């Protein structure tokens, strides 16, 4: 966007800008710094407007319980999301312990159903650049997860050559053990370590929020690793003990994001998805 005469955000003139990853930090003429995000058209070619609406609704929903801080949504339209800026520093053990306990409380805030979108959020949501349909499901978690998360991306990974048909058949035929039934949790939905910012506490950004299984968020946080992963998991388990065998189910919960990565980026993600459940 850039600064200059006539460029405004929130009705204020933008006097300076700087890139911050995939977003832009704008300094306004009243001294505030805000984050401006303009999602590009996804690779699927779909309109980006639902991406902003889904993210804004997700941030507001995650903010409701007041347990894990998220940036405040200041403005959102079809193509632009404006939020407050999170000051960052290195993660500390104390912040990681707090995050584990707070994440447990966020999950406990619940959702109306598996697959339920945040209030006011569109059914056509997103996880990163990938479309993600949010339709409430009244049945068992595994039935919903396989139908609405795994199968669409399993087919897409095969169609794009990231996964062989035989590997897809092995995934479909895997003996999946979902563990005890749990009520729908309020998920961030894309909780890899890059979507957790650290200051005096952990902050959540870029949600793909929906009702799901709480182990999914934990598995996603573990997928690409974090220096304080064990501290977060221990604090979470102390605050809200996980069902026996949860470590054996990490691969099942990582299957969806691995298939998303396989469909979007190829590489070794297809084989990683196969290894996760076989």
From TrEMBL:
It comes from Actinomycetospora corticicola. The keyword Cell cycle does not apply. Belongs to the fructosamine kinase family. PANTHER family: FRUCTOSAMINE 3 KINASE-RELATED PROTEIN, PROTEIN-RIBULOSAMINE 3-KINASE. One of its GO terms (molecular function) is kinase activity. Keywords: Kinase, Transferase. This is Fructosamine-3-kinase. Pfam families: Fructosamin_kin.
């Amino acid at each position: 966007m850039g600064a200059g005469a006539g460029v405004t955000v929130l009705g204020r003139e933008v006097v300076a800008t700087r890139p911050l990853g995939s977003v832009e930090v704008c300094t306004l003429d009243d001294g505030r710094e805000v984050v401006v995000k303009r999602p590009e058209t996804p690779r699927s070619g779909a309109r980006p407007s639902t991406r902003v609406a889904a993210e804004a609704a997700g941030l507001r929903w995650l903010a409701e319980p007041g347990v894990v801080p998220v940036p405040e949504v200041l403005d959102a339209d079809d193509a632009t999301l404006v939020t407050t800026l999170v000051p960052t520093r290195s993660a500390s053990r104390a912040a990681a312990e707090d995050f584990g306990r707070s994440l447990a409380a966020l999950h406990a805030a619940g959702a109306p159903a598996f697959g339920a979108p945040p209030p006011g959020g569109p059914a056509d949501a997103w996880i990163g650049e990938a479309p993600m349909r949010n339709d409430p499901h009244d049945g068992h978690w595994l039935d919903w997860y396989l139908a609405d998360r795994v199968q669409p991306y399993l087919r897409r990974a095969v169609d794009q050559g990231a996964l062989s048909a035989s590997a897809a058949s092995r995934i479909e035929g895997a003996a999946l053990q979902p563990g005890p039934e749990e009520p729908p949790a309020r998920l961030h939905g894309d909780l890899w370590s890059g979507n957790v910012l650290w200051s005096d506490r952990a902050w959540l950004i870029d949600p793909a929020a929906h009702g799901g299984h709480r182990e999914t968020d934990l598995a996603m946080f573990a997928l690409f690793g974090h220096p304080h992963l064990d501290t977060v998991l221990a604090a979470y388990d102390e605050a809200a003990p996980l069902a026996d065998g949860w470590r054996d189910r990490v691969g099942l919960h990582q299957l969806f994001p691995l298939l998303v990565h396989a469909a979007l980026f190829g590489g070794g993600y297809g084989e990683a998805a196969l290894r996760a459940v076989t």
